[in-house]
Amino acid sequence: MTRLGWVTDIHLDWLERPRRLQFYETLRAAGLDALLIGGDIGVAQSLPLFLSELESSVAAPIYFVLGNHDFYGSSIEAVRERVRRKAAESGRLIWLPSAGVVKLNATTALVGHDSWADGRCGDFFSSDVLLNDHVLIEELSVTGELRRFGSYDKAKLLAKLHSLGDEAAHYIRRVLLEALETCTRAMVLTHVPPFRECCWYQGRISGDDYLPHFACRAFGDALLEVLDQRPEASLTVLCGHTHGAGFAQIRPNLAVWTGGAEYGQPALQRIFEV
Description:
Elements: E1 3-7, H1 17-29, E2 34-37, H2 47-57, E3 62-64, H3 76-89, E4 93-95, H4 96-99, E5 102-103, E6 108-113, H5 133-136, H6 143-149, H7 154-179, E7 185-190, E8 200-201, E9 204-205, H8 211-214, H9 217-229, E10 234-239, E11 246-251, E12 254-258, E13 270-273
Parallel strand pairs: 1-2, 2-3, 3-4, 6-7, 7-10, 10-12
Antiparallel strand pairs: 1-13, 5-6, 8-9, 11-12
């Protein structure tokens, strides 16, 4: 059996180095064969340091995706390129959007993508929520419009979110179909909940004002499309982003775990044996 440890939303930039080292020791002590990280590792400036620390501290392959916080202070494209290069140079850091299908054993594959909240769940145009994403990430920044006009073009922002969600959906549809050609089970690692039913916060499903910013319907639709074509397969999805823990059985063969999180208190969510 392979022991897979899963963490998400660890926000290592909230920890001084001694506390980070304690967390890494917790991961080492778990006796993991591989570590899965579901994004929000740090912010753009600190991300390379934290990936290096994790690689030197955890003596196992580290499969990871990025979260929205990982792009703060930079652009999506710049961070992705930096991470792509770092993973290519590493022996144990595997960024799943570059890795494609990872076979864990004869019957189980691992795939993943960062994903993005695509604004399609809930009521985007009635929502007054403005995330730090829309200030601190270059491609999504509305600060210039706010400064000049006191408002921003919500339709333009929504189009960008749709594009990011569609990109994630296109990728996961392709790699899942590839994975299920030889495997009957797949684990899907992502940051953003792919269904409203798994968009947990404080024990409840998020309301229509927050759902546009915390779920990716395009990603969820892609998962369902794949299972329609491969009804004999089963999927286990691991996500985070909301900081609220929960579990949702979307279909008999589609289960979604959402990881909980508190700033300054990173935790090992679960250990899966496959």
